[in-house]
Amino acid sequence: MSDAERGGAIITGAGPGVSGSVARLLAQQGHAVGLLGVDRGTVEAVADEIRAAGGTAHVALADLTDAVAARAAVAGLGERVGPVDVLHFNPSAFREKDPLELEPHELLEDVLLGVGSLLTVVQAARPFLREGSRVTVTGSMAADRPWHRAASLGVQKAGVRNLVHSIDATLRDDGIRAVSVTVRGTLSDDGPFTPARVAAAILAAVDQDGAVGDDWRTEVAYEG
Question: InterPro entries recorded for this chain (predicted)?
């Protein structure tokens, strides 16, 4: 894609870890980046890094579980950076409770953030997506091997992976594809599971070596 054709990117659940690394890599590729998060200091820090490196970053603040505010924030970023080539979804809720401690309403609260808000994000961004656009999601081995002490996280990661399959099937006829990247390891400051390396795997999944049609995979595992 030429610079003249290059669109922007929106990162939802933006922060200093994987999502921040994804944002920096996309900015290095020449995409204007829209960052959506809930904490101004955290999101602005990522934006400042991008700008200091010569990139373009815009910031919006919203709680993704507030559908009205989140839709407005995504639409506002789309208007500033669109068309949107990459829409990345990163948030999840970590609550250290096992199934005997976890209350049903707490599970639903966590699923609203880690799964349900993906619907809000995709629906709000749809007017800015075009043929060739990609929806990416940070997945986790917790979908298959949940830690019982954080029972809701496994439910979120399994649910969001499942939802990605449906999003892809809905958008594929318009040339828009979706993929979740299942990170089969624990994030760390060094080794194969640093945020930067996981982010690189997510961006590799955006292209999948040029895969199209039935060759496209809606789940890609990053084994490190």
Answer: NAD(P)-bd_dom_sf, SDR_fam
Length of the chain: 224
- Look-up: residue for tokens 């990139």? 55
C-alpha span between 8 and 62 (Å, rounded):
19
d(CA 187, CA 20): 14
Give the global pTM.
0.94
Edge-to-edge strand ranges of the sheet holding 33-37: 57-61, 33-37, 8-12, 84-89, 129-140, 177-183, 219-222
Kindly report, residue by residue over 86-131, the tens digit of the pLDDT.
999 999 999 999 999 999 999 999 999 999 999 999 999 999 999 9
**Dihedral, CA of residue 18, residue 93, residue 86 and residue 192, to nearest 10:** 30
State the angle between helix axes of 117-125 and 151-171 in degrees (0 to 180), rounded to the nearest 10. 30
Q: Nearest to residue 77, comparing CAs of 21, 133, 107, 33? A: 33
Q: Phi, psi (5° rounding) for residue 136? A: -120, 150
Query: Mind giving me the DSSP string for 155-212?
Result: HHHHHHHHHHHHHHHHHGGGT-EEEEEEE-S---SSSTTSHHHHHHHHHHHHHGGG--
CA angle, 22 then 67 then 18, to 5°: 15
Pick the CATH number of 8-222 from 3.30.70.3450, 2.40.30.170, 3.40.1010.20, 3.40.50.720: 3.40.50.720
